[in-house]
Structures are given as structure tokens and as C-alpha cells.
Amino acid sequence: MKKIQLIVLLLLPISLFAQIAIKAEIIYTVSSSPIREGVILIKDGKIKAVGTAAEIKIPEDYKIYLSKIVTPGLIDARSVIGMSGAMNVAADQDQLEKSSPIQPELRAIDAYNPNEQLVKAVREFGVTTVHTGHGIGALVSGQTIIVKTKKGTIETVVINPFAMLAMTIGPEVSSNFSSPGTKAKQISMIRTELLKAQDYLKKMSDKDSTKRPTFDLKMDALSKMLKGEIKALITANKSVDIMNAIRLSKEFNLKLVIDGAAEAYLLINEIKASKAEVILHATMARNDDGMINMNRESAMLLTKAGITVSIESGYESYVPKTRVILFEAAEAVAYGLSFDEGLKAVTINPAKLLGIDNRVGSIEKGKDADLVLFNGDPFEYTTNVTSVIIDGVVEYYTAP
Amino acid sequence: MLNKSVLFISLFMVKTAFSQEKPLVFKGALIYTIAGEPIKNGIFTVQNGKIINIGPEGSAINPAAEVIDVTGKIIMPGLIDTHSHLGGPDGGDGSNPLNPETRAMDAINPKSDGFKKALAGGITTINVMPGSGHLMGGQTAYLKMREGKIIEDLLITNEKGVTGGMKMANGTNPMKGNGGFPGTRAKSASLVRELFLKAQEYKIKIDKAGKDSSKLPERDLRMEPLVEVLNGKRVVHFHSHKSNDILTAIRLSKEFGFRLVLHHLSEGWMVADEIAKAGIPCSIINIEVVGGKMEVLNLSLKNGGILENAGAMVAFHTDDGITDSRLFLRSAALSVRAGMSREKALEGLTIVGAKILDLSNSIGSLQKGKDADFIILSGDPLSVYTKVEQTWVEGKKRYDITIPADKAFLTGGYGVYSSDRGEFHHHDGEEDEEGN
Predict the structure, then answer these.
(1) CB A278 within 8 A of CB A310
(2) Which residues of chain A have pLDDT under 70?
(3) Which element (helix H / strand E) includes B223?
(4) B194 touches chain A (CB under 8 A)
(5) DSSP assignment of B372-424, as one string?
(6) Domain CATH for A160
(7) Model-level pTM greater than 0.80?
(8) Are A250 and A109 found together in one domain?
(9) Which CATH number characterizes residue A33's domain?
């Protein structure tokens, strides 16, 4: 008897996760119809059960949170937070290294700051997972990562330490480097480098290890993209740049993600035929430079045409230093996207695109307990996020 | 004699045809007059660019009027943006940190498609300002979103007889530290004080001359607008973020007796009581996530509510291109999200702005005799799902969401906007010099 008590006492502090139950008027699971008067049970950081209050009995030792609305934790398909800081001074801007236009060897894990105030800011607006890392503005600016926005170190928050290679085709590149100075030069430089990587890959697979080339960080990173282990994340907004990205991906058999995609609405058939995935610019992005022809109805237009859309915060050079996908999705809904599709564009769609839909993106048994509690319609201007739960831990709480 | 009569009659007829424009009656809307309680199913009559009458449900309708059924819609005053950079305004150049003589009106493109963006957002009056890269950027321009090909078509003269205010700034934006520009806050203030001391001397000479024009001092383009500032005719629109900078702006206004409006005031919430006590009106911006430059890191969506509770007058602004004119209603909604009252938020989009620009006799609320500047909304003004359906300026419909060419300015799309709008010069990598 005494032994058992001792074991229980020892186990209690070891359990890092409080057992939590959420009772809500509406649970938007995303994976199935909304549940009215629903309950979610969270155990050890995972969703243990989700259903109606009638179906699910809340165990006595669970701490209960009440909420009007619950959604899955939001997933930002493309950001630079944690790399590009709020202060906007040289010391907190790590998203773009301008010493060379092609640097696939640059790892985001070596720069990401989980304690940056913008990470906290988006967390408090319900963003629980972010695809972030190297920015736009170089042909290959570096690697990207997928992280949870919870407090911690890169080691404790990272989901994927090398998710994609961040590439840019378009006017943003030529303003950062003396060369490439033209569109044609941009493409020729990328092709040259990818041909080198093809050759490297071929030689590396030589059965005779003595004939293999010496290990090369740059070539190794590009090889992973050529082998399809990671996706090519190509920021391209103007239609000519989007087509260049598609042409490149065909030539080198890349798994293409078109990012930005401001003029994608002009290329519905071409994008569908290419099987490229799309991360769409923030709805409220400024229509300057390559974005001059952006359309706030793009999310609706692309979705209606059968292209799956994930909405990003993207990159901002000034004020605001980052956008928030909660608001960007809300605006997409205001501009014609349905509520359900708007929610998908910041949950399950990016989860699938990022290859993490087995863990996040919907409220289902067994998935990570990443949840956002709202005191009203999540997209409404005057609604507040009242709590944010990441991996079963309440990371943000205000009285509902 | 006969000829004279004919001439008189024909002149009269022309004048009659012009002035007796058919009245327009908007029937069935919920009317937020801002001057009092909302009116359900109101009868709203406009004619010749003015509001003729606002009656409750069942009021008599002028039989000569054209009646427009707007049942289920909301009518409210045209929005007033107290701080914008649409139309490509500029002011001083790099040669001097103090530029009272430069006028935004000399730079603005009256045909800028940025103004279409404002109309799509329900904005009917704008204070277009030079940037904040100077201690004194220049004279601002008060514009109505009328159709126009020259700037005078848009420019409005306010109750004090001026067409704009005076843009000033402190904090880091003007602190370039070279070329005569200050490198510190104390130097910034001392340069401003020196200029105002000169303006005081100039004003004394003018006052002494009285009606004897021979005794007037030589004309001085730099001094003249500052005399208007010292006389209280021309308001100072002061860009200021940090609490210490805000208090410096107030200190300067007290020393020289100029009328002050504080703009942005990211840290206004920290000194809300001081601002309210000094009776200084505020024009705030809402940014959902802070960051981008050091001095805005304490900005909070709670600013509006805290200033309201302290008793300060609060208006909103877009600072377009920092926030988008099409989302001006959203700005007020974000303050409500963080604790401001609905009533004061709606006033902050309308009547407070009118007061700040000395235009409240003609705009800012829906009242008999005021300009027929109003918007028709599909729903609640503070909802994300609401659309501005129509924007009217002085009785003329300037934006109609059912007209595809108008709606294009709401959504954007291929070739809708040109790249010469001007407001984006803030983002060319010179943010710290030209930024807001």
C-alpha cells in the first residue's frame, strides 16, 4: 500500500502535462462537421477524445476550460518570424544573407530565436505552428524549418529542422544583388547550380567510394531537393516568374511549392497541370513591386478553381513586422472565401503541404493538443483569442 | 429693357436648373448620425450636395424626390482619415530639417488611383501629409474625395480659413544626425524652438504694422505659415511615438501656444492622463503586431480604449501605406476588440476627425445642413463581413460596389492599380528617413 502511494507521488511531478478538458459551444474540428456543445479531452499533450458533451464524460481530475469557440491551432504556411525580429535592426535580422545569391547550406536551426517577441505575438493570436526560416530575396536564401510557437529552445520546439529550400524568382532578388540583374540571368544561375548538384548526386552514388567527391554543404542541400526529400519553396508573384518556377521544377523534377503567387489567378490551368502546391500571400499584403496585380479575392478564386490554398503571413520589411494569418484568413473570408475554406487555409491545408497533418491541422483523437479558444466568431474583428494551448500546455490565457 | 429681362430670366433659369437638383431620399436604413442615437428605418434626404433632412421612420417624403430603398443597410457619415500619404505628397528635401514653406498640395497627384482606394474604404475626407523624416515636413492638404483633375478640385478650406495643417515630427525619424538634421532629441527640440522664436518675432512685426501695410515686414514664405500656426489658424499635426516625445510635443505647444494634434502616439497609453489633462486631441493608428522600428515596440491595440477612459479625444488614421485605406473601419474595430467603446470608436472615424481638421461645421456627422458625405454599408460598421457598398461625396456617388470598375479598386487585380501612387515611398529601404 505504502509502495503504491510512493509511486503515485513520484509519478505526479514527472507528468509534464496537466490533464485538460475543454467545453465549448462550438468546436470547429476541421476534419469533420462542427460539434455543438462539445468536449475535448487532452492527455499527455495529445487529444485523447473529442465529441459532444453527451458522449464524453470528463474525468474528475481534469481541469476544465470553458469556451465559446475552439479551433485547431493555426498553422502559418510561410513566415520569417524568429529569424526577422521586431526591432528591425541589423542585430535581429537573420532572414537574408546577402553575400551570395545562392546559399542552400544556410540552416534555419542555427538562427531561429523561439523567444523573439513576434513569436509570442502571433502565438497570442492563435498561431501554434509556423513554417519559417530563410526569407525572400535570394535565388536560394537558405533552409526553412517547421516549429511550434511554444516557449522553449529550438531543440524543443522544432518539428522539422529542414523543411524546404527557400528560393525567390523575381524583382526582389535583383534589388539585393549586383548579379543576377535580369530575369534570364536569375534562371540561368539556378539551372547552372542545379546541374552541378545533379552531377554531384550522381558521383556521390558511385559504388566505388574513392570516386565520390568530397562532401559539400551546398551540393548536399541541393541534392536533397533534387531527390525530392525536401520541397522547393519558390517565391514567385508575377505570372512570368511563376511560369519560370514551373519550368524549373519540370526540368529538375522538383516538388514545387509556389509561394506568394500574386498572379496565380491568371494561371489556373498551368498550376493545376504542374501539380505545384500554392502558398498564397497575405490577403492584406501591400500591392507594391511584384505584387502590384494582387487580388484580394485570390484565395476564393483559386479555391473555386480547385487549387488548394494555404495562407501565409509572408515577409514584411517594416510596419507591421509580421502579419497574422488569423487576420489574413479572416480577410480572405471577407473577400469571398467560405468560412470553412478560410479555416482550412490556416489549418489542415498547410498541415498537408508541410507534411505534418498526422500531428496537427485538425482536432482529432491522437493529434497534438494544439487548440485556440475564442470568445466569438474567430474571424470577427471584435472577437478575442482567450487561450492558446500547444502540445497540451496552456501557453496563453485570459479570462474568457 | 426687354433684352435685359430675357437675359435676366435665362440667367435665372440656368441658375435654377443648377441649384434645384432633384432631392434624393434614402429610405429604410439604420442611420448612425453620430450626432445622436441611431435612427431606425430613417428617411435621409440630400440635395445640392447637402443634407436636407434626417427623419425617423414614417417621416413625410418630398414628393419631388427620387427615392432609393436601402432597407437593411446602414448609413453613416463618410469616414475622415486624419493622416494619410495617398496621392504622393511630399514636403522638404534633405537640405533642411525644418520646412514650413513646403506644401503637400504642390506634389499631390489629384488623379492618383490611391484616392479610389480611399473611396472603396468609405473615406470621404483625408488629411494628406508630408512624411516624418523632418522635424517640420511642411504644410498638409485637406482633401475631399471629389472627382478632380487639379488639386484645387479636391482641396477644402476649413473653418479657420486654411487648407491644411503643419506636419511636425520628433523621435527617431528626423534624427539623421547630419546635413543640419538633429542627432538627438534635445537638439530636435532646440531647432524647433529656435524656429518658433523667429516666427514669434515676425508675428510681432505684423501685429505692430496693424492696418498700415507699409510697415509690414518683407514677405517670408517660411514665416507666414508659422504665423498661421501661432495665430491658431493652422493646427500642428505632430508625429510622435514614445511617451517622452509625446510630452515634448505638448511642452513645445504650451511654450509657443500652438494648437496641437498628436499622431500615432504608440506610447500614448503610458501618458494618457497627461494627454487628456492637456486637452490634446489624438489621432491613432492600430497595428495588430508591433515591430518594424524600435520606437513603436510598445504600441498596443489597447491605446484607443485607455485614451478614451482618460478622457482624451481619439480619432483614427490609416497612415496609408502603413495601413490600407480600404480597411479603415477595421482600425476602429481593432480598438473595440481591445476595450474601446463602440460609440467612441465610430466617433473616432468621423466627428473627432472633423474637429481635428476644423471641419466639424460641414462634415463628421449626419445633420441637416452639413455636406452630404456618407457611406452605405451592408452591415455593422465594425464587422469583418461588412462591405462599403456606396460612398457619396457632397451628394455625388463616387463609389458603388455593384459597378465592376469600382469594385476592382476594392479587390485589386490585373492592371487595376498603377505603381505611381506615391504612398509606398516609405518602403523603399528609407523607412527610417521617410517612415511614419
Answers:
(1) yes
(2) 1-17
(3) helix B223-230
(4) no
(5) --EEEESS-TT-TT--EEEEEETTEEEEETTSHHHHHHHHB-TTTS-S--SGG
(6) 3.20.20.140
(7) yes
(8) yes
(9) 2.30.40.10
Architecture of domain B78-364+412-434: Alpha-Beta Barrel (3.20)
pLDDT (0 to 100) of residue A17: 60
Q: How far is B150 from chain A (nearest CA, A)?
A: 25
Look at residues A358, A360, A357, A379 and name the one whose alpha carbon lies nearest to residue A368: A360
Any B CB within 8 A of A98 CB:
no
> In the predicted model, is pLDDT for residue B325 greater than 50?
yes
Structural domain of A348: 74-353
**In terms of CA atoms, which chain B residue is nearest residue A334?**
B385
Which of A365, A315, A292 shows the shortest CA–CA distance to A81? A315
CB proximity A266 to B under 8 Å: yes
Which helix (H) or strand (E) segment is B120 a member of?
helix B114-120
Distance from C-alpha of A35 to C-alpha of A37, rounded to nearest angstrom = 6
| Amino acid occupying residue A7 | I
**A321: chain B residues, CB-CB within 8 Å:** 289-292
State whether ipTM is beyond 0.90: yes
C-beta of residue B239 within 8 angstroms of C-beta of residue B170: yes
DSSP labels, A9-28: HHHHHH--S--EEEEEEEE-
Residue in B with minimal Cα distance to A339? B385
Is A124 at the interface with chain B, CB within 8 A? no
Per-residue 3-state assignment (H helix, E strand, C coil) for B302-352: CHHHHHHHHCCCEEECCCCCCCCHHHHHHHHHHHHHCCCCHHHHHHHCCHH
B12-72 fold = Urease, subunit C; domain 1 (2.30.40)
Digit-coded pLDDT (tens) for B108-131: 999 999 999 999 999 999 999 999
**Which DSSP category does A337 fall into?**
-
**Helix H or strand E encompassing B433:** helix B431-434
Q: Is residue A359 part of a domain?
A: no
Three cell numbers written together for A390: 500547444
Check CB contact under 8 Å for B384 and A263. Answer: no
Are A163 and A18 contained in the same domain? no
- Model confidence band, residue B426 (pLDDT cutoffs 50, 70, 90): very low
Residues A62 and A79 in one domain: no
- Residues B413, A284: C-beta atoms closer than 8 Å: no
Q: Which of B203, B150, B135, B140 is nearest to B359 (CA)?
A: B140
**Where would I find the H helices in chain A?**
2-14, 117-123, 154-157, 171-174, 183-204, 217-226, 239-252, 268-274, 298-304, 325-334, 339-344, 348-353
A278 and A241 fall within a common domain: yes
